[in-house]
Amino acid sequence: MIMYQRFAALAFGLVAACASTTPVTNVAFEGTPPSRDFRFTYQTELPAANAGDELRLWLPIPVNTAEQRISNLEIESTHDYVVNDLVEGTGRSLFVESVGEPIAVTISYDVHRKATAGGSSASATELAEALKPNSMIPLDGKAGLMAASVADGASSVETAEALYLHTLDRMRYDKPAGGDWGRGDADWACDSRFGNCTDFHSYFMAMARAKGIPARFVMGFPIVGGDEEVAKVGGYHCWAYFYDAAEGWRPVDISEADKHPDKAQFFFGNLDEDRVEVIGGRDVVLDPAPAAGSLNLFIYPHAEVNGKPTRDLTKSFSRKNL
After folding, report:
1. In the beta sheet, which residues pair with residue 6?
2. pTM: predicted TM-score of the whole model, two decimal places
3. Which of 8, 77, 221, 297 lies deepest, with the highest CB count within 10 Å?
């Protein structure tokens, strides 16, 4: 039997946005930032090869942020499930399990997303966390040491911009078949000088944190435009934020700037509305915990069969204009 449930948006948390006391610089918007509304659908199926297989599946679910509002969440599942806050990271996860039966889950929700220049503040605890290393973003590795080659500016914003331009100059967006890109390994990115969005932003974050600038990591999906009512979404996207005491959290999307050089100035300190944020953080800890332990990245389904991770599943994503 398919389990079906609708949730009110408030049940999934509202992240308070505390405005910065000082206007932020390099803002690309005048007046009300542009926004859009769409419905996002996330589907996955995990097959069962044998009658006795123990299947466990985790999927990410977003919460409200300063830049987006999530509503009309609907979940269809072949089995009972639970939804919990992440133990480490921001967002929620759905967990479902079965013995010997395939699992299919569809998650859909409405998103009101606005363009942003950031500016919200953070607690001392949040800032301390954003200065700590992650398993693939060490502070004393090659990327962290590279930070010394980038001159400091008169403010954290100026220093972050110098790191942004350095990353943009050093890295190129490339995803060759069979490569090690896509793990968000800052030191690998330092050596390879190419990769996808995880590699770009991990490299930037390692340097920022090494210079004492808090930085955090966000994963979500790019939301394609166009007049067609429904469109396929090909895969995830990620971006980062750095913190300045006067201007608060400021976003950067360096891999998009590399793909679209005409928007390089825009993507330092600004984000467009064509995206949805799903999960924040690295070394994400789920509840209940997978046998694999913390997850370096969590945006695609995490599945385990008999206690071992598996990629033998299908997944698809789409958006519907509202």
Report:
1. 74
2. 0.93
3. 221
Q: What confidence tier does 1 reach under pLDDT thresholds 50, 70, 90?
A: very low
Fold held by 37-114+283-321 = Immunoglobulin-like (2.60.40)
Closest CA to 67 of 246, 278, 265, 262: 278
> In the block, which residue shows the tokens 């050596």?
191
Tokens of 269: 């300190």
Specify burial of residue 8 (Cβ count, 10 A radius: 0-12, 13-18, 19+): exposed
**CATH architecture for the domain at 124-272:** Roll (3.10)
Q: How far apart are CA 166 and CA 140, in angstroms?
A: 18
Average pLDDT of the chain is 93
For the stretch 79-98, pLDDT in tens is: 999 999 999 999 999 999 99
| The pair of three-digit structure tokens given for residue 36, joined into one six-digit string | 């859009």
First to last CA, the chain: 30
In terms of Cβ atoms closer than 10 Å to its own Cβ (0-12, 13-18, 19+), residue 242 is buried
Give the Cα separation of 309 and 318 in Å (integer): 25
| Residue spans in the chain of domains classed CATH 2.60.40.2250 | 37-114+283-321
**String of b and e for 161-192 (b: at least 16 CB within 10 Å)?**
bbbbebbbeebebeeeeeeebebbbbbbbbeb
